[in-house]
Amino acid sequence: MRFVDYEKGGNASSLFIGTCDLPEMTANKVMIRVMAFGINRADTLQRQGRYPPPPGESDILGLEVAGEVVAVGENAGRWTIGDRVFGLVAGGGYAEYVAVEPSHLMSIPQGFSYEQAAGIAEVYLTAFQCLKTIANVSSSDKVLIHGGASGVGLAATQLAKYFGAFTCATASSEEKLHHCRSYGAELTVNYKKQNFVEMIKHHWSDGVDIVVDMVGGEYLNKNLKVLRQDGQIINIAILGGRYADGVDMALLLAKRARIQGTTLRNRSDEYKTSLVEKFSTQCLSAFDSGSLKATIDTVYTVADIGITHQRLENNDTVGKLIAKW
Questions:
Q1: Looking at residue 77, what is its pLDDT?
Q2: What are phi and psi of 289, to 5 degrees?
């Protein structure tokens, strides 16, 4: 089969198409012919040599796929050959075929293309994990979402609205903020021109209940300033820096704040199975009705895979970048 190979530590232009054996098929797996796959920052970090796959997982890049079931292990459950599915993989998504845990797959929503479906799993499951599994978001909560125009940010904005909460999204340009508003953000902040602490205090004087933060670094104290008592800050990335020196512990105590970091790729199969089941039960039908939407920036052919990595590294996206075979 063909797959996207890379030079470890290389730049985006070092990605190239190679060939390798088909993935090993077992009684507990489903084989998917990959039609399209999503591009994630974890992929760019792995290419750079900064984010290795979990032990035992494929070295091939790629955390989410959409395609057609072509083989089913004897213990692989309800899927049948020909089913159109999408879902999570811990590695191996940048290939023509991938073997997947059947419980990590979902049926593609009615009317969705493979390219649309390829952009759902990673961002929506990450957002759902933050808002529902960890924070238990409820109606009338106020949620601050940094990186609001990213795939996770737009998914989180839609999910928050779906669960009856209100959102403030931060982003770097008016164009990106326009997209945030179009997907349901009530309040938006251009962090290059405006102070999100001042903006939130002006519009929402009582602060926010939940912060979904992919920036880290100096944002921690700022997040604490706008957090209500007993609020939660959930960190999912560190685009603004690994360390948060000078944390205001007095403010942390006064707010009775909870700060939690979370990831998805290195979770156990059992955890992912439970997360997929809960998301499917509570949210999957909303794609059929149009209440939730895939947020696709651009679909590329695999021949242009280097462009997708470069655009992510340039922070030049609104929503998801997708590659198709």
A1: 85
A2: -85, -15
